[in-house]
Specification:
Helices cover about 20% and strands about 20% of the residues. By secondary structure, the chain is an alpha+beta fold. Bound molecules: zinc ion.
Length: about 290
């Protein structure tokens, strides 16, 4: 699943080719994504101008001149290709390579500029919905990690949870948009053990304690840093222009098993364990 900073790089790639252009034609080749495409999908989009390309959490939001917002989610394996004549590129930086198999091109937007924006998604966990702009804030998919994300919200979600903090943070129902890499990084920055019980960041009544405050600060810093670093993460990845990116992000713990902990004065060694089927990297010395 693409991490939030990766989605931001996709947004930055789509913005210049979509914003200000009219969508002259939509091909909805396959409508059975995670949810079916809305029935009037093509009709509500064709002929509209894209007035802005924004993002909330991992949702890309294209504002249309009709007042609708086209909500797009990459799911597990989704990506876009921007095509003009015979040239194509995939906007965005991804940790894992993206499919370009034509069989998985499910939706194609033809722009008035002559560009085609093609949505490809082999596993079809992606999503495209239309929501009218005034209804957007109240939409159930638009909640966590928006501006409202704070310690009170996180504590309320973890209240009484007997699972590990790592598992709780990886649960998209608790924090949408925070992937495995950034859960590890945020826990290290907050000096909280991934094995700690989730309920221990809340009081019995569900109010945030000092750990919840620390954790929320850490999550925000980690995501901002990653976005600033130009996307993610990523090793062995070439930019769409063929140059190797200079964004090799320096992780504190992720993928650093056996290496020295970077916390000043700690001296611990980064360990890897598996939790809920995913690798967790952490420092058993300074993360309590
Ligand atoms: Zn340490």
């Amino acid at each position: 699943m693409p991490e939030l900073p990766e989605v931001e790089t996709v947004r930055r790639g789509l913005q210049p080719v979509m914003e200000g252009a009219r969508i002259t034609k939509v091909e909805a080749r396959r409508g059975d994504l995670r949810q079916p495409l809305p029935k009037d999908f093509v009709k509500r989009i064709e002929g509209r101008v894209v007035t802005g390309v924004g993002r909330r959490a991992k949702y890309l939001l294209a504002d249309l001149s009709s007042g609708d917002v086209l909500m797009m989610h990459l799911g597990m394996s989704g990506s876009f290709r921007v095509a003009k004549d015979d040239a194509e590129k995939i906007p965005g930086e991804f940790h894992h390579p993206r499919s370009q198999a034509r069989a998985h091109d499910h939706v194609v937007f033809h722009m008035s500029s002559g560009v085609r924006v093609i949505f490809n998604d082999p596993r079809r966990f992606g999503l495209m919905l239309l929501v009218s702009r005034p209804d957007l804030d109240a939409h159930p998919l638009m909640k966590p990690l928006g501006n409202a994300f704070d310690a009170a919200m996180l504590a309320a979600a973890c209240k009484g949870k007997k699972t590990s903090l790592k598992a709780a943070l990886s649960d998209q129902k608790v924090v949408a948009g925070l992937g495995n890499i950034y859960v590890c990084e945020a826990l290290h920055r907050a000096r909280l053990s991934p094995k700690r019980m989730a309920s221990t960041i809340a009081t019995r009544s569900g109010a945030p304690n000092e750990r919840a405050e620390r954790l929320v600060d850490a999550i925000k810093i980690v995501l901002q840093d990653a976005i600033k670093a130009g996307g993610s993460s990523l090793r062995d990845h070439r930019r769409t222009d063929g140059e190797l990116g200079d964004f090799q992000h320096h992780f504190r713990v992720y993928d650093r098993e056996g290496q020295r902990c970077v916390t000043p004065g700690c001296g611990g060694t980064v360990k890897r364990i598996v939790q809920v089927g995913r690798s967790t990297y952490f420092c058993p010395v300074c993360q309590k």
